[in-house]
Amino acid sequence: MDPLLLGGIVAIVTILILFSGVSVAVGLLIVAALFLVTFDGMRSLELMPEIFFGKLDNFALLSIPMFIIMGAAIASTRAGADLYEALERWLTRVPGGLVISNLGACALFAAMSGSSPATCAAIGKMGIPEMRRRGYPDGVAAGSIAAGGTLGILIPPSVTMIVYGIATETSIGRLFLAGVIPGLLLVGLFMAWSLYDTWRKGGESVVLAKISYTWKEKFEILPRVLPFIGIILGVLYALYGGVATPSETAAVGALMCLLVAIVIYRLWNPMDLWVVLRDSTRESVMILFIIGAAGVFSYMLSSLFITQSIAQYIGTLDVNPWVLMGAVNLFLLVAGFFLPPVAVILMAAPILLPIVTQAGFDPYWFAVVLTINMEIGLISPPVGLNLYVINGIAPDIKLKTILWGSLPYVGCMVVAILLLCIFPGLATWLPDMIMGPVL
Amino acid sequence: MAGVSVHKVAKHGGNPLLRAIGFLSSLCGIFAAGMIVIAVGITCQMIWVRFVLNQSTVWQTEAVVYMMVAATLIGIPYVQRLRGHVNVDLFPLALPIRLRKALAILTLATTIAIAGIMVVYGFELWHVAWSRGWTSDTVWAPKLWVPYLALPVGFGLFMLQLIADLVATIFDIEAPFSIEDEQTPDSAPIAGAD
What angle do CA A272, A278, A281 make, to 5 degrees? Predict the structure, then answer.
């Protein structure tokens, strides 16, 4: 059978099986087994456990559970609330300081925890009631936090970027750097929209309202937030200073975050510590199971020459690279509406990357574009996890209001993608400057 | 990553067998968490040895990787018990309850079959590694049957938890796909989790 036609059949069968409600990892194993048996015979099944094991037998993967523990330890403490309070106290003189504090806290907490829903929950619990109390529209209060939470998968250290790096065999350190400027760009766009939207709804007095804090109040909160920020900076220094690999720095970061949570935030209770470990284990195993299964799925695609044929076919098409990129973005956007970022990356990146690089695009730039697409999925129906998280912490705001409040932020993300297309240097300049150009 | 938990756990409805299987899966979770914690410790020790004591490391890198693989494989049944494996449940949500139950039984049976394949061939791989005394190509050269053992054991325990879930679904101890009729936002699909 023509590999391209076979690729189409595999795509349809994969969609059908994943939509049956089976877990993503098992779905990938089922599709792989089905096509391996059909085209390579029963004996090909004996390779499945070996390929699964081989895919996980990778030191770089260790960074996933380590960064997850780091995030879970931070998320289990009052660090999010402290961060929010610190920024609020220091930025109170800035017009719209509250919404800026919220989005700034989201960006910083996202960097520390690497998790979108955890960021939404940690900052939103404090930020949304406070914004509403001071007269910000519900849509802005909910939408800004839902969107701010998505920064968790773009601003380093990001588990999504690690998974992309592993799936495409690109440098994780370079990927982290590529996400920095686009992450800050998104924060800026979110802030600008929040202020404009509040202003246009007659919130001039809300935006300009200031609460004064004494210097004592400003300084007394710093000791509570500086340790975590110090750890993050230390981790990034170790990573880029050539001291250790991502997995090693993540392990030290995880240990430090656990110690800070225990010592400073008094996470003494063994049950509280178990909750951190339980959540980390659940999240890590879920992701690693998908990674192992995606390895078997990729093997099936490769052994049936599907991956190679698609790349070859796209190479022969006389299509404008930007049309191709538009189609790729549309695919990612739709996939991101239904599937978790990790699953989309593991399934799509190995197929899309050769196509994208063949069309002349930078793989690190593409990682950022892909990640922003995944961020859109986090605040768009039908799944849009962050919308539900916000709904959970502010149940009196209607889901419809949260959704409509979030939509302009989706627009900001689309603007960011367009800016990245016009100025690819936004993603590639920083890694090139710090780590040198890709050879 | 963590921090927002969708707290669902497999129901046993008082059935001692289902309860025992759930307990076994929980033990798997404790084992997996323990492996991850030990891996954190060993990695930190490795950095200490390499950068502070300026000595070379021999076994640490391989040991932590095998621990992570073991944590993943042995952790799979625990995550199944916690309903932590992400899925797309939009279609099952749209189905009437009877069809949803039929689909749940079908997907669980298929999952059991795929886990069974991994158990059988995982055991075969483990047995070959054990009988031929395979070791890894490193200075440390650990016997490979030890890490390979996690394959049949992990998928075997996963299969056991799946069988318990299938029984719970058939006898209406648990709602199909763990979707309660009046779904709250808290129990919404976590398919957007990063």
Answer: 145
Spell out which residues of chain B touch residue A248, defining contact as CB-CB under 8 Å: 43, 46-47
Q: Interface pTM (ipTM) of the complex?
A: 0.91
Q: Counting one residue from A and one from B, how many pairs have CB atoms under 8 Å apart? A: 259
Q: Which residue has the higher pLDDT, A63 or A201?
A: A63
Residues A42 and B117 sit within 8 Å (Cβ to Cβ): no
Each residue's pLDDT tens digit, A51-60: 999 999 999 8
Dihedral (CA of A49, A51, A56, A58) sign:
positive
Question: Nearest-CA distance from A274 to chain B in Å?
Answer: 9
- List the one residue out of B152, B147, B153 whose CA is nearest residue B67: B147
Cα–Cα distance list, A271 to A85, A278, A285, A376 (Å): 27, 10, 20, 35
Grouping H, G, I as helix, E, B as strand and the rest as coil, residue A114 is: coil
Q: What pLDDT score does A42 carry?
A: 92
More confident residue, B34 or A107: B34
Q: Which residues contact A163 (CB under 8 A, 6 or more apart)?
A: A64, A287, A291, A341, A342, A345, A346
A-interface mutation test, from B48, B81, B83, B88, most A Cβ less than 10 A away = B88
pLDDT classification of B17: cutoffs 50, 70, 90:
very high
CA distance A94 to chain B (A): 31
Mean pLDDT of A293-310: 88
Task: Determine the average pLDDT of the residues in A262-275.
Answer: 86
- For B37-41, the CB contacts below 8 A with 24+ separation are B37/A277, B38/B67, B39/A62, B39/A65, B39/A251, B39/B64, B39/B67, B39/B68, B39/B71, B40/A66, B40/A69, B40/A251, B40/A254, B40/A255, B41/A255
- Model confidence at B184: pLDDT above 70: no
Distance CA B81, CA A341 (A): 23
Whether A113 sits inside 8 A of B1 (CB atoms) is yes
- From chain A, the residues in CB contact with B162 under 8 A are none
**Residue B194's pLDDT band (cuts 50, 70, 90):** very low
To the nearest 10 degrees (0 to 180), the angle between helices A47-56 and B150-170 is: 110
> Which of A72, A120, A248 lies closest to B1 in CB terms?
A72
